[in-house]
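Exercise 3.2. Students should predict the tertiary structure of the chain below and write it as structure tokens, then compare their answer with the key that follows.

Predict this chain's 3D structure.
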Amino acid sequence: DETPARRPAPTRHGDAARPGHGGAAATPHGGAARRGAGPAERASGRGTIASVGRRFAELWRFGARVTSVAWLLFLTVFLVYYGALTWLPSILVAQGYGDYAAFMVTTLMTGIGVVGVLASAWLVDVIGRKWVIGVSGPLAVLALVLFAVRLDVPAEAKWWITAFGFLIELTIPALYAYVSELYPTWLRASGFGWASTVSRVDD
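Answer key:
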């Protein structure tokens, strides 16, 4: 004769949480979750740092020349831009322009930049990123030099600093687009991010 299968003994409500009933001991106030980061979390943090290091090395393995050019472009363009933006008010005040005049000239330079950004978006599609950067960048530097030379002629100096504000804002959006395209898709975010980080040395 077959012996009927024995049914498991019923458990009362809450038995699963009691020692001896196969359940984990309850911890007051979720204490098990408050023991700090475990090995998995610490390993994850180390893994993130290692991943950044590997990606940085991959940039240079992919192309040291490409990465050097990208960093140099960001560094020089933003050195000129932030340098002018930072020192222009002090230079104008020292030349006797007055606080209000210095503020208005700086505002004019940054305001005309909005037009430069819009023009850059159009020119990039018409003549290409390299041409926009290669022409507008040197012209922006030339305009800034002429501004410094003609600083004693206020009307002329204002025109040159306005030209600089327009030209440099032609360069910057085109630079963003160009550097991003230097790298393959899987490396593009790191390539652009590191180049942009280098430019912040100018801040």
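Discussion points: Residues 40 and 46 are 10 Å apart (CA to CA). The two ends are 90 Å apart (CA to CA).
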